Amino acid sequence: MGKLLKCRMKVIYLLIFCYSILFLGCSSTTWIGKYSYNKSEAYKNFNRFAKNKDLEVTLYNDSSFTLYNGVIKNDTLCNLNNITLSGNNSIALSKIKKVVYKNHWLGIPIYMVVGAASGFFIGSIANSNNGNGTSRNPELTPTLGGLIYAVFGSVVGAVAGWFLSYNYVYVFN
Question: pTM value?
Answer without folding.
Answer: 0.67
